[in-house]
Design goal:
With about 300 residues, the protein is mostly helical. The protein has two domains: about 90 residues, no CATH class; about 220 residues, MetI-like (MetI-like fold, Orthogonal Bundle). The chain is about 80% helix and about 0% strand. The protein contains 14 helices and no strands. It is found in: Cell membrane. This is Nickel import system permease protein NikB. GO terms for molecular function: nickel cation transmembrane transporter activity. InterPro entries: BPD_transp_1_N, MetI-like, MetI-like_sf, Opp2B. It holds the Pfam family BPD_transp_1.
Length: about 300
Amino acid sequence: MIRYLFQRLLYILPVLLGISCITFALMHLTPGDPAEIILRADGIKPTTAAIEVTRHTLGLDGPVYIQYGHWLSRVLHLDLGSSYSSGRPVLTEILSRFPATSLLAICGIIVALLLAVPLGILSALYPDRLIDRLGRVFALLSVSMPGYWLSLLLIYYGAVKLRLFPLMGMEGGSSLVLPSLALGFGMAGVYIRLIRASMLEALGQLYIKAARGRGMREWSVIGRHAFRNALLPSLTLLGVQIGGLLGGSVIVETVFAWPGIGRYAVEAIFAKDYIVIQGYVLLMAVVVVLVNLIVDVGCLLLDPRIRLR
């Protein structure tokens, strides 16, 4: 296990280096000059002289590879630079918004699992019955409904019509309900289908028949044997989605004006704030890689066959 973890950690370094290089190059290939955008935002006429002075102040007047080298050297010292727009450190800005995004991601995952696990298991236990058909319809609605449209529906009925929850922003526990529902409902459909398919495959295995032949209770057979083995594909998918959610649920955070990382990244993109986007992408890449590493270790612990291989 220690050797496996050490190998995986070694693989992370070239991945992060490649992501940082590609992101830096793409940012400089996009049209628009951040110096001009900053001058216009400050109410200053973007003359050629003013743009040159601003570019020199921001360090954007040198060759791209020199800029990348300076930025990478700062990153190695845990300094992601300062925002062109606000002047505040990027790492501080992201970390200050990370708890809000983490809270929303956790609540969204809980909603998705509360919907998907029972529906997926029941659909597998009673295939082609009423509960299975209802689960299929629910899964179809979940995967086909756009996130922004569902968010607007929840705002209209939950906040405007019924006035049960705050309209937008982060104002206590009640403000979590609508964005969590929007986030969780969109993820639930995939898990319902995946859990159903995995459970049907597991229930047809010989070890399930052997467990029933030994007189084990049905709930124990389903919970301890079938569901445990059916959990591996869902756990893998969950790891991928957790990384994305911790990177910021851009649509949900934007619609609900949630003060998270995703909304911060969208604002940086519109402001052409290179340094924020580069820091955001690199930091979220670290989160995604580490979450997937944790998921892989969880799969090793859940399934002894993987450890034997």
